[in-house]
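[AMINO ACID CHAIN]
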Amino acid sequence: MKNIVAYVRVSSASQIDNTSIDMQIEKIQGYCSLYNIHLKKIFKDEGLSASTINRSAYNEMIDFVSDKENNIDGLIVYKADRIHRSLKNLMIMIDYLNEIEVSFLSITEQFDTSTAQGLLFLQMLGSFSEFERKLINERTHAGRKAKGEKHLYVGGRIPIGYTLIDNEKLVINNEDANKVKTIFKMRCKGASYSKIAREYNTTRQRISYIIKNPIYTGKYKYDGKKEKNKISFDVPRIVTDYTYNKANRINRD
């Protein structure tokens, strides 16, 4: 490789993980000097997370290496997580760089996609990451299912009107439960979702979700589109079946 660009980044916690901008640049310049590589330009993002690609210097860098007139052979970073925290996003970027014949180098991890070994290492890393992600998902699902079978709340956003105690059981929050009851009464009297939403300074989608949620009749369900758990158990009721059914028969948005 003859011409190369560097990307460096720090987040708000940069000094904690000892990867300051100056240190990254120093390591990259030392590497390029050692291997007689021309460091054409350095792109810096400061105080930004690598969990998103909405970074000005990052996008400027991608545009720069994509321009054939700049004659860039490679992109170098001190450490892979300086450019992407997500391995998936890292692999997507590397695939794109391969398409435009630009190699990717990481000093810390010591891989170089300009070599067959380096590319193979990254592909293996991607496979292991995918396996780990699926394993974590399976364990998470198994844990939630086990909690559901014990009639314990499995997680997620707690419905308005309830409070979670001991991180496991739903109990009624009287103040919010009264709001829920009023919302159902307004709907039963023919009020639109939009009108109720204006009353409570929220969105019509939020009001629709409340009206259609059977948990307020005392039935909590943990099913899932993919898992099909078919788990349900009783929780404290906030509205009667009659009120719930009447509110959901109203054909007005």
Remarks:
- The first strand starts at residue 3 and ends at 10.
- The first helix runs from residue 21 to 34.
